[in-house]
Amino acid sequence: MKVIGDVIDATFAPLGMIQAFVILALILATMAGLYFFLVRPNKLDSEALQRLAGKRGWTIKRKMAGVSGAVSQSGRGYRIEVQPTDGSGWSCEVTRYQNIGSGGHVWKTEFVDPTTGPLDGMVVIGPAIPKKEAEAAAMLLGSFGGGFGKMLLSKLLGDESESVGNLQLLKDAGISGATVFATPDAPADRIGAAYAPLLERWLRTHRHEKEFPILIAGQDRLRIRLRTDADKADSLEAFLDHALAARAALAQ
Prior knowledge:
The chain is α+β, with helices and mostly antiparallel strands. It contains six helices and nine strands; from the N terminus they run ααβββββααββαββα. A nine-stranded antiparallel β-sheet has the order 1-2-3-4-9-8-5-7-6, with helices on both faces. Helix 5 (188-205) packs antiparallel against helix 6 (233-251).
């Protein structure tokens, strides 16, 4: 305590009483601002997530994620990991990450269920492409094995677009507000019919393109992905209710 007192005396002794109080008030105001705008909201979010976990029988862990190195490779952010406690096998991960050097970011939420299936082929249901663009893509590409097709698919699938060379655009999939890609051997009609009413309900209250729940069904798992971070308890619960309803519908 004596050391702290000496530091304060050394700092404020050359100043007048009024100046010293003004500087001290600014320091306290800055500290209070940091608490109320950064620390307290994070604490409240974490508490809300734990209440959600207890209510739904899930485990929810929030982990800080950072990468150190060259400026262009450094980043910071966090992940939220969700798993059920009943052993049903699905999981969900929310990622919010920003690269400090480039300013780029990764905001996404992904539900994964390896117990759905096995399904023949692959079906991808994503946000609507304007009609003219969809028709041009179908006419010029036929299938999405080419480089341009993979560029389009990468917006939906990310890195995994490299491994889905024979996905084709279905022009008359019959799902309002969506674009459907499928391999020739996939049960696209059945999956589309099961998912369409759930998607319609979701889109009534989630209108932003990044909130579109991209469904990727095939091979050995079901994935549903948002291109944004559902990191608040209410938005995370709403997304997981949607994903679990889709899981149940596709299992029938």
